[in-house]
Amino acid sequence: MNAPFASAAARLALLALVALPAQAQLGTFNHAPDSAPVALTGGASSELLLDVDLPLEVRHAETGFPATLSRSFNSLSLAIPDNSAAGVAHAPVVSGVPGVIQSLQLNLTVSPRGSEPMFNGDLFVTLSHESGYAVLLNRVGRRDGSTLGYGDNGFSITLSDLAAADVHTYRTTVTGNELTPISTANPAAPLTGNWQTDGRTADPGTVLTSSPRITTLGTFAGLNPNGEWTLFISDLSGGGLAQLDSWSLEFTVVPEPESAAMLSAVALLGGAILHRRVSNRERRRNRGDGSCGK
User: Fold this and answer.
1) Domains in the chain, start-ordered, CATH in brackets?
2) pLDDT tens-digit profile of 48-57?
């Protein structure tokens, strides 16, 4: 590292002329650990003077993008009609989440309704928002030779594109085969853990393990996280009553393209000024005149 960057206490004044909306807070410069971040704000054609320590890192003023924020919907106890394609929908409105979606994961809890166990292989569950649509569960365990699917007792799971295994075939991951239940307790415990979404858009009456997996939670990337989100869930076979207890969304968000472009422009401008000043200092030092002026 060059000498001017070696000391965290080295200070430089960065002068930038940028066009910003009136009173816009564009971001912060996070600098030396012993100094607080400096907010970058201004009105139209504002002159911004920052006196900061090195090294510099541009972060978003509101969230420190990228950021992870969650919205939870608890204590629902929504009865899922048995043996009915009508199902039940829960459609909350999300607000106050900045930026756009980079990635998304969903937590889901479904439990038996009443004293009898439910039947996991009965359920068809989807998520929709704006142009995004994902099949979360589609008759898990339904395969060649078994049109009923898995007979386990509930879900308390996280669905994520980063998970290692397909939720449709979770028994092969948990027990090593399709036939062994995941719990022998009484009442049987629900499925837990992190799973990939089912993703199979085939008709729930004909879906099989071999059906194409088309949708993922990645379909929501780039969308505004705010607005109505609809979780739809139906029980498509008789016997075993279920209810939706809770669900939540965990957003990883990044700046909208316009904000990201402005931040990049300011960062590049600041970097150019910084490089020019350091280069001038190096030239003077090489001449031996000892000058460290501007």
Assistant:
1) 3-64+255-287 (no CATH), 77-254 (2.60.120)
2) 444 444 443 3
